[in-house]
Amino acid sequence: MSSVLKERLSNKESGPFENRSTDMSNLSGQSGDSQESNKEDDLQETSPSENKWLLIVAVHFCNVMYSACYWINVGVYPYITKSLGVDMVTYGYLQTAFAALQLLGGPVYGRLGDMFGSRAVLVLAHTCGCLMYFVIAVANSSAMLFFSRIPGLLMHGAQGAQMVMTDMTSHKERAVALGQLGLSYGAGVILGPFIGGQIAKYFSQKAAVMSAAILSVFAITFVITFIPKFTRKIDSKPKQESSTSLFDLKRIKDLMLTPGVGFIYLMKLISGLPFGIFQSMFALVVVNTFGLTPAQHGMFMSYIGALMILAQGFGVGFVTRRMNEKNTLVLAMILCSFGYILLFFSSSALHLCVMVIPLVFGGALFGVITNSILTKLVPPEDTGFVLGISFATHALIRTLAPTIGGLLLSRFGYTSFGSIGFVVCSSTALFLFVKQNLQTEA
């Protein structure tokens, strides 16, 4: 900087029209210095929080709030639609519309996270949730209920939390970190219906949904305050440039053709469809076939939430420390197969309580491990997109499952869910086992 000042002083002494080239070179040098300074500032801004564990706690707290708000809405939504005169067919259309929007929005949301950072997309998810809950709370017609589904396009708070955890963890610890998000999400599954039920009991169903909107506003403030703009680790090694375009079809094609990525998505779709079918028809089965009252149904859902906490919060870590990911996938499919066999022979509520144990644990292992594998197959700057496709796969299942489940339930009964699930999951387990042995021999 002292040399620059000296040259400027000499230029002033020489007159305003002399040594113009020297001035221009100095200006360009200053511009380069300022650009380097800006880059350093950007790196400092994009660096993860100095205290990693505080950031992890913040992400889990955001996940609890997102889950609680969502399940407050789930608990009272059927009663709100009924009070507005919505029949079962229209209710099915509402559910399908939401699943279709989630299907379209998942990859877009993931790409936005890759481009603009974790804080931006978490704020976006909670904002969309707030808008959806608010419109439901003030809805006075079925048209407004359909309108309330539109923000669901980018309401992917759980995906946003997974994106942050993926950014902050190494390959070795990623499966455990992603599994532990189920701990906080499961806490929301337990708290949400309880909070919503109490507010609905003493006030109204719409007041419960409005409380979810208010809690979402608090979540937005929390994210802005405690989540850094970017959480992706800065690496000195050269990386493949990630496109700045939201819809870079060539980039998307290259990612989908990455070895192993397409296979994982196909396996998630095929193996997840039986569970999606059972889940979509679960409320009808437990009420019409097993005769559970609303209170018993709520207790059963809390029981499933507790199992989710145990499975994803502790079970995934316990298994992955003792088995590699390929063997864990085989174990997950075996557990699901066992659960579906129990479903086939279930004839009481007690049988259901036993049946869901292997099904929840197997499903948790399968979901976490497949997402962990996907994030390891692609460059770090594209992990948000592949997680978005993964969530879109679940949305596609939720779109197809109600129609398929309704046909199976009406023609063959609920036991058909168990038989189809057993065939699909046992076949997948056998295929993975044989494939792994062939690769080992090769």
TrEMBL record:
GO terms assigned for molecular function: transmembrane transporter activity
Membrane spanning residue stretches: 53-72, 84-104, 124-147, 175-195, 207-227, 260-287, 299-320, 327-343, 349-373, 385-408, 414-434
CDD domains: MFS_SLC22A18
Domain of life assignment: Eukaryota
Topology class, membrane: Multi-pass membrane protein
Family annotation (PROSITE patterns): MFS (PS50850)
Biased composition range(s): Polar residues: 22-35
Protein name: Solute carrier family 22 member 18-like
Species per Swiss-Prot/TrEMBL record: Paramuricea clavata
